[in-house]
Design the sequence.
């Protein structure tokens, strides 16, 4: 129990780690959802070359370990003249990597959507961005809600990898507390429970949005 | 990159493959056992399994691994980096596999157990002859997707000192001051392995959908 008292005395470090994990997750989710929603239509374009390139992008990321990609961004890109600090590299890696997954999730949800509302939208004069924003996206986001929620949880978990490029997120904070005071069990178990709490919050959020959608249907 | 660098990279690749295989081979049956415990609604244990799955699904592998590697010695269990890594992969995989197995079990029609009981089949035999063949087929695409996720998590093992292919690439990059070539070479090793699993998963999904459409 004494060990947990030590962790409690270092709570400000742990909380700043948690806050950084939350900030990373929120920013990466917003970025990946926006870019993924833009990439998704490219996956289904009639032009072969465009669709092929988009599929190659998505499949390439689906076959790449996130940590390897983070290393490529952090160590590899500076050699071709693009440098980041650990925050820039971490955020860039998280956004680009999860864009591929979000695009694929939305494509799957889109394939299962009825075509009639889009045709009706055309008939009412919706075109391009307006059609996409008002007619295509809302039902798509609701249908894909739970899977997108899982992707947010995946972003939370992938952000832990960024401890290796010295980004001070939750795992990094817990690990420095454990090595400084030698309280590995208390420090890392606390981090683990905080991750769990974070994921329960995300799941509760997804469920709340689902209920709201059900009520407005 | 010199010949020695390539050798380092390939021995790293063998480590990655070996650890992934061990993690999958241990995580699959453990996940099945957990799913059966929940499916059978064993009192006290089933809710504990539910909490175990919920916690482990939310835990980053790297955090779990640090916990296993640094905390177990303080209760007298000392593990090498490889053992700790396999243990972390197994626990992580078992939580995800449990959910996949459980979904397949839930889809199994109830009348099958009644038919088995009416012919006097014992539970063990029923499990082996009736349940397993069917849920294995239904769960296969999900399990394969989980395997590809597990392979993508193995670079985390480097934090406790396992030299997998990603770690080997970073080391070579640090020694030669040219990080890009070894990292791209490592990527070229991962891509075909994970792509084979992803393609296999798509193929089985299609086959399953076809056989369900016929039935």
Sequence:
């Amino acid at each position: 129990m004494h060990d947990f008292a030590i962790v409690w005395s270092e709570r400000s470090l742990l909380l700043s780690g948690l806050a950084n994990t939350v900030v990373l997750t929120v920013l990466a989710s917003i970025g990946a959802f926006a870019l993924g929603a833009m990439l998704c239509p490219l996956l289904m374009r009639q032009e072969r070359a465009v669709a092929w390139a988009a599929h190659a992008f998505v499949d390439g990321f689906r076959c790449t370990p996130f940590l390897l990609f983070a290393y490529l961004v952090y160590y590899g890109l500076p050699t071709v003249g693009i440098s980041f600090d650990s925050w820039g590299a971490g955020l860039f890696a998280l956004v680009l990597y999860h864009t591929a997954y979000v695009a694929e999730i939305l494509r799957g949800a889109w394939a299962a959507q009825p075509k009639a509302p889009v045709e009706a939208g055309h008939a009412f004069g919706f075109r391009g961005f307006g059609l996409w924003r008002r007619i295509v996206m809302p039902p798509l986001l609701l249908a894909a809600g739970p899977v997108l929620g899982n992707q947010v949880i995946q972003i939370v978990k992938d952000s832990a990898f960024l401890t290796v490029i010295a980004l001070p997120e939750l795992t990094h904070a817990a690990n420095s507390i454990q090595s400084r005071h030698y309280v590995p069990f208390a420090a890392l178990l606390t981090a683990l429970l905080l991750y769990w709490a974070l994921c329960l919050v995300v799941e509760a959020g997804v469920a709340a949005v689902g209920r709201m959608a059900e009520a407005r249907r | 990159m010199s010949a020695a660098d390539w050798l380092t990279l390939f021995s790293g690749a063998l480590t990655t493959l070996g650890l992934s295989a061990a993690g999958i081979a241990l995580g699959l049956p453990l996940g099945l056992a957990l799913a059966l415990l929940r499916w059978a609604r064993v009192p006290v244990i089933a809710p504990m399994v539910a909490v175990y799955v919920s916690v482990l699904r939310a835990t980053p592998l790297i955090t779990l691994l640090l916990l296993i590697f640094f905390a177990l010695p303080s209760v007298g269990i000392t593990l090498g980096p490889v053992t700790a890594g396999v243990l972390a992969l197994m626990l992580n995989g078992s939580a995800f596999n449990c959910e996949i197995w459980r979904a397949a079990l839930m889809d199994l029609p109830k009348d099958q157990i009644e038919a088995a009981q009416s012919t006097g089949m014992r539970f063990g035999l029923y499990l082996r002859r009736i349940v397993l063949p069917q849920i294995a087929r239904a769960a296969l695409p999900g399990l394969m997707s989980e395997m590809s996720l597990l392979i993508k998590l193995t670079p985390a093992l480097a934090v406790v000192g396992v030299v997998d292919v990603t770690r080997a690439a970073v080391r070579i990059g640090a020694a030669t001051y040219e990080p890009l070539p070894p990292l791209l070479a490592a990527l070229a090793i991962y891509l075909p392995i994970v792509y084979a699993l992803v393609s296999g998963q798509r193929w089985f999904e299609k086959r399953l959908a076809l056989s369900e459409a016929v039935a």
